[in-house]
Specification:
This protein is an all-alpha fold. It folds into two domains: 1-199, no CATH class; 209-405, no CATH class. The chain is 83% helix and 0% strand. It is built from 20 helices and no strands. It is globular. 50% of the residues are buried.
Length: 474
């Protein structure tokens, strides 16, 4: 378990550092307009990829975790789900290209959309759900790091001017698909598929529920970029993209511990070890509180310097947008715990579907109302409102026996420890005027201050130890 958590955190850090390093470079070369155009093309293609997935990346983790001790059932489950995935990928690819070639809107940048179609067709090659289910996090992590390093080298080699948008698109696609295709091939070399048994029927009903939830979720998480593009300009999308990326970069690390626990929780629940599963969830909630609150305060306070450092002067109109979206780590972190560690492992797929359907309705309404008035800031407000309502809906749908109590002492102590960041950052700003220096010194000092308060004053060092200790006792 300890290695799985470490590998999952390492993978999450890789998924943060690669976009961060690459974006710092690309933002200054392509500018808000170029970034906005590529982001729209990628978002449009990813819509179809999500449809092609029909909920398998979520559902597959649970199903693989259930049968990981039986090679025959493991092979049958993987082959059945991956075959479904392939068929839906082909169907969605045909629909995607039909729209791109027929609708006149896509004629201007048609080559971009044709290339992005590769993302749709190769959607089925995404197999992280299989590796997560068998808890082979090391394979996902190592391969992802290698592919991202190659992509980074390609970026610095082939993206030199504002005219290299096409090269940037190709490299972005490679950074996503390179690892996926390799993992897919590797599974087929190592899985026992001599006498494959395909059984689709048991998966259809639960997949439809998760698929509906996934579609609703994807619409309200990608919808903002697309509607922003249609109602405003590529520059506004560029500002919003920078704010979104900087705000959401840390979220994979926040959810990494919980992500590593999903197969463990599912395994214990399927074996009727309910209290053991709940103990992991309780510890995961403490970690979520401990990490998301300081991240939110830090992002909000350092937004001007972070945007200046990582994107440049041209993206400064996105500062307020980033400050609004700084609330997302808290809401998404808790929402991830409620949905992926409680509702889905405990078989409450319908509750997730209903909650995300509510989010879908709220997102469409809020975006259509707020974007025309407040542009990228309106999209940011909509995102925060939507995620908050979805999170509340998750909690509402929990059964009475599954609801947990928040560790309020930890909550209060974490808020107090995080608010110390404000005078620290203000003091650093008074002493220095270089945004890079302010970022580095502020982050370093805030981490030290937070650690001293939490570990030595409030004695909360056990927050992270508890998960490992519980697993050791099993």
């Amino acid at each position: 378990m300890r290695k799985n958590i470490i590998y999952n955190i390492l993978l999450s850090l890789t998924n943060i550092l690669f976009p961060l390093i690459s974006f710092v470079y690309v933002a200054r070369i392509l500018g808000p307009k170029g970034i906005g155009e590529v982001q729209f093309v990628m978002s449009f293609a990813q819509y179809f990829s999500i449809f092609a997935a029909i909920g398998i990346p979520i559902y597959g983790v649970r199903e693989i975790a259930k049968v990981r001790d039986s090679p025959a059932k493991l092979s049958s489950t993987f082959l059945s789900l991956s075959t479904l995935f392939f068929l839906t990928s082909v169907i969605m690819t045909l629909i995607y290209f039909l729209i791109v070639f027929i609708h006149p809107y896509f004629s201007n940048n048609q080559p971009y959309y044709i290339v992005a179609g590769i993302l749709v067709f190769l959607s089925f090659s995404y197999t992280d759900w299989y590796y997560t289910g068998i808890e082979a996090f090391h394979k996902i992590t190592i391969r992802s790091i290698v592919i991202k390093l190659i992509a980074l080298a390609l970026l610095y080699t082939f993206v030199k001017t504002s005219d290299d948008i096409f090269n940037y698109l190709w490299i972005s696609i490679f950074s996503i698909l390179g690892n996926q295709v390799y993992n897919f091939v590797d599974i087929y070399f190592h899985l026992d598929i001599k006498n494959p048994v395909l059984n689709f029927k048991p998966h259809i009903k639960p997949l439809l529920l998760i698929f509906g939830a996934t579609i609703a979720s994807s619409i309200y998480t990608l919808w903002d970029t697309i509607i922003l593009y249609f109602l405003t300009t590529p520059e506004i999308v560029g500002y919003y993209t920078v704010s979104t990326r900087l705000t959401k970069l840390i979220i994979p690390v926040i959810t990494a511990v919980g992500g590593a626990l999903i197969p463990t929780i599912t395994y214990h629940y399927s074996n009727q070890q309910i209290e053991t599963a709940k103990s992991f969830i309780k510890s995961s909630l403490d970690v979520t509180i401990f990490t998301t609150i300081p991240v939110t305060v830090g992002l909000m306070a350092l937004a001007p310097e972070l945007i200046d450092t990582f994107a440049g002067e041209a993206f400064k109109p996105g500062i307020v947008t980033m400050q609004i979206m700084s609330l997302l780590p808290i809401v998404i972190g808790i929402g991830h715990l409620l949905s992926f560690q409680l509702l889905i492992p405990f078989g409450q797929n319908k509750a997730v579907f209903v909650s995300m359907l509510i989010g879908f309705a709220v997102s469409i309404t809020a975006n259509l109302v707020l974007i025309p008035m407040f542009l990228d800031k309106g999209a940011a407000i909509s995102a925060v409102i939507t995620e908050t309502i979805v999170c509340a809906a998750y909690y509402y749908h929990l059964s009475a026996e599954n609801k947990f109590k928040i560790h309020y002492n930890l909550l209060y102590q974490t808020v107090i420890s995080s608010l110390v960041f404000v005078p620290i950052i203000m003091g650093v700003r008074m002493a220095f005027d270089n945004p890079i220096v302010i970022c580095i010194l502020s982050i370093f000092t805030c981490v030290i201050a937070y650690s001293i308060l939490q570990f030595f004053v409030f004695k909360n060092i056990g927050v992270f130890k508890s998960i490992i200790q519980k697993r050791t006792q099993l």
